[in-house]
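Glycosyltransferase family 2 protein
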Amino acid sequence: MVPSVAALLVSHDGRRWLPTVIDGIRAQRAPLSTVVAVDTGSKDDSADLLQTAFGDVLRAPGSTSFPAAVELGLERLRDRGEAPEWIWILHDDANPDPGALAALLAAAAADPDVDILGPKLREWPSLKRLLELGITISGTGRRETGLERGEYDQGQHDEVRRVLAVNTAGMLVRRTVLEALGGFDPQLPIFGNDIDFGWRAAAAGHATSVVPDAVVFHAEAAHRGARRTSLTGRHTHYQERRAALYTLLANAPGRKLPWLVVRLAFGTLLRMLGFLVVRSVGEALDELAALLSLYTHPGQVRAARQARREQPRADLDRAGPLLSPWWVPYRHGLDFVGDLVAAATNQAQDVAERRRAAAAERAPASYAPRPSSDDEDTLGADTGILARFLTNPVALLLTLVVVAALVAARTAYGSIAGGDLSPVPAGAGDWWRLQVETWHPLGTGTAVPAPAYVLPMALLATLLGGSTSAAVSVVFVAAVPISLWGAWRFLRVVGRLVVFTGASRWVLLWGATTWSLVPVVCGAWGGGRLGLVVVSAILPWLAHAALGFADPAADRRWRAAWRVGLLLALAAAFAPVLWVLAAVLGLVVVAAAALVVRGAIRDRSVWGPPAAAIGLVPLLLSPWWIPAIQRSAAEGLLLDTGRLPTPTTDTIDLMSGRLDGLGAPVWLGLVLAVLALLALLPRATRIPVLVCWVVALVTSVLAAVLGALSFDLAAVTVDAGLGVLVVVLQGTLVVAAAIGAVGLGAEQVPWRRVVAGVLLVVAAAVPIGGFAWWLGSEPEISDGIDTDIPVYMVQSSEEGPEHGILVIRGTVEDGLTYTIRRGDGVTLGEDEIINHTLEDTDFSADVRALVSRPTTELVDALGASGIEYVVLPSPADGDVAAVLDATTGLVQASAEERTTRAWQVDRPLDAAALEGPASWLRILLLVVQGVGVVVVAVLCLPTTNPRRSAP
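Predicted structure tokens:
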């Protein structure tokens, strides 16, 4: 007996496909009992085509979802009094092969236990490319077909098999099963209803099979964006992702739901990052919106789960074997990384070539610029000809500036420490150990991660033969020349952008020299503020890379994003507040671009590059940021690096570019601010100067906000780090003044020469005064850091971390404090870890008891904690010394000063006292950081393919 089959065709604006689909339905070799056509508000003549073909069409409004359309078709069958055994569901963009229905019915007759059957889907119009042979879903919500990308049909999958679900395009389902399961979920209006229905059917004990002999050609109009409706909207990816998340949360077993909620949230962040890396910002935002849509409305998921529990014979575990294997998402991740690395090796040439070509096109015929290289800049005339060099005053003065900087930095030759700069460790291996350790034997032991700047310092020290002192010395000696070079390059490009003829070399000399002296005159150099010195050297190069965001070519704007992101991550490793400022400036710039250029915000290549550059920083610095937040050390993200307490900054310091009154005389900074203000007068360059003042205003506002914050650390209360904002503000004022000088040179007014002469004298006083002060100053980094611990105890502590020294300072009347010295003392990098480690309250209680009412158990605890000596540095409190003298287990030890008292702990020292657990999260983050740095560095490089280098 031939089973009765009713075809249910759903259509919406399907005019381009319907004629072929109608012919395909009529050509079926297996007979159809009836055809029910449902049109959901088509604006074309789809409904008329269906009316002509089948005589009866249900016309529904455009807001009708696919589940509702199917239910309308079933109601029409009931109204007619028809009860077919099977329902064959078709889309208006799904053309069935003439033998499709016959093959489905034959498979159903061969296996009576099967209630749902689906065809092999091939791509329409290519006809040979496979789309689906049954579907399932992974634990991250990815729709899995088991097919390779672009796989062609060669009969390699032609076997009937059980699957979780089949596509609704061509699905053959028993009518009684469809009605018993309540049809398709109305919460899935267009996407994902096939997987959800198959999952619910499997949970209810119904079987689903795919029949490869049945072929349906599917155009996937909604998925590919060929057709948009009120249900899909403009964000198809959002609808698909929301459907996938809803399907997982609604159908997963209850015991897996908590883990699934966490996994999907974390997986969404990873997917967002992946979309950002491949420049798909819209999809990244859709991912987040889909997650928030469900997580902020949990009632929808609860109602869905309740409805599924009420279905007859429901058992969600039945679908488990049909779900995607657990390892599939990780395989997709590896595939993505492979694609990313492949793309990284095929980048185009440097953005500077495009900028010069554009400049040449705008140049008048009479203008013939000197050939130059944006990557190998010549600062004076041709240095290959000695005579021209000696007769070029700018080149001579520039050389003099470099020589003067090297002479003024004479203090930094050799090992330096003092001020805010801690001593360096013995070798580069100590920094590498600090970088990869997940538990540090410092104090009483801590899992606070090493600061982010340890990695670049370790790399530099390794390149210098493992000498840490040489690495720090190179940073302090080379900071001014590197900043000078970068500022010259940046100001030269800016000059060409604001005035076609560019800035004069005298303006470039003044601007570059003044900018390079910013870390010196603000007091960061002499005070040992390593982070601010490094940022000052990187900042002009970072600004130069950021100019690429204005390139007319989208791909070059994206390459600028990788360069900016890498440089910003390096700078933020030494001064985390810089990332906060960059994020705020990025928002301001994108908002301004949206206001000035209508529609710019809709172009992801406009706002995407700066967003990607800013988003790269947390990824590249994740081994520090994430564990720091995890270990309650998040305040480190808003503090300056270096020994505590850091210098405070008030309004006058911010305006004059000084750190807590340190550095050169205040009037030098105020003169620079006045010059930047006067730069607003020339009309030719007023707009770029205003841009500089906007940056200065944003920086000042952020400084005011952060200035209201303070953080209570274990040993001291400190203010938020404003040092990097001082540096940025001074650099911005230098750029504004230099641009103003360019504009003044372009002004054709009678008084221009007089004003220029006066301003030249005033402006020259800034770098000259800065150099004069630097040459005559006594920097704190030459003072070193005195230790009041006896030498033999220091030597003993270097034998291992268990030979610790408990140093107690102060008096009973004024209060006592303690520190624990291990190894060679607190070195650069370790000071950050100790500063941000929470107080060990148990050990503090033991120390309080030790100086008041000591017991033998407390002495035993000292040995178990790896404490070999107890020291009261000069002047020692007599009351505390008397208590320790009478303590059993503490043996008096000699001290180098009469007023310094010391005791040796007469107990076994526990070598394992400072061992702690390993953090696999940090190890994973270190791997991610290493891969990320390599990938981004490759993305920054220009291509070596000459065919890609052509303009």
